User: Fold this.
Amino acid sequence: MTPKPRSLIMDLFGDYLRYNNGEARLGELTELLSAFDIEPSSARMTLSRLKKQGWFETRREGRETIYTLTESMLQVLAEGRERIFQRRDSPWDGRWTMVLYQVPETERAVRESLRKNLSWLGFGQLSSSSWLAAHDLMREANELAELYPQASVDTMWTSTDSTAKDKSLALRCWDLEELAGDYREFIDKYAPVEQSRDFERATGAAALVMRTTLVADARRFTFRDPRLPLELQPRDWPGREAYELFRRLHAYLGPAARAYVESIIKSSLSTYPPH
Assistant:
């Protein structure tokens, strides 16, 4: 399934164009998106909408419009990249970060926004107003609470008296069975690509499309994965295997995809990360 223009634009900036001073010309963006069969009219419409939503600032140079990421979007991309590319299966100290909240019934939008942000941070929903994370996210939770003065938010440390109970809590907070299935589907799809060395034959626009599709497929489970400590992971958990496969293929496809983007923007991507 081809990613939507909105997601493609995020991936193009996240993986490439933010290393071009976070900007690109409209003509360059439409040409890059054409590799994914996105029509110029659709590209222009999506970019206009994203500008209104605060993703971009624009300026004119002659007859060309230049789109530049806003500072807030640069931060979003940096946080997203860390979630996708950093994985730490570290030992656990036995404590959960817990968030409890109360939101007036008249503030449904606040409740939904708070839940969305808790999920983004890595919390799982235990009950209607109780969320848990198996990592030290106290600072992040307190910062999030300050953004919602309409809600009453409490944060605390909590623990049980057995690993068995902790594993049960994890199963209640996240659909780990579905997530494991998605990981295995990813492995089944991309392990043959690595084994056959198909990525070595991808050049130009094909390399960009393959690499961007890889990122889009990985993102479908990355932001749902609570990154459970080793002690809480179910038996034969496929998360690490899928992650390492993703990292290898992303690195393999990097030079060809990056070269194609540079050929379109006619500039070298500066301070580009290794993966």
About this structure: The longest helix spans residues 239-265. The first strand starts at residue 23 and ends at 25.
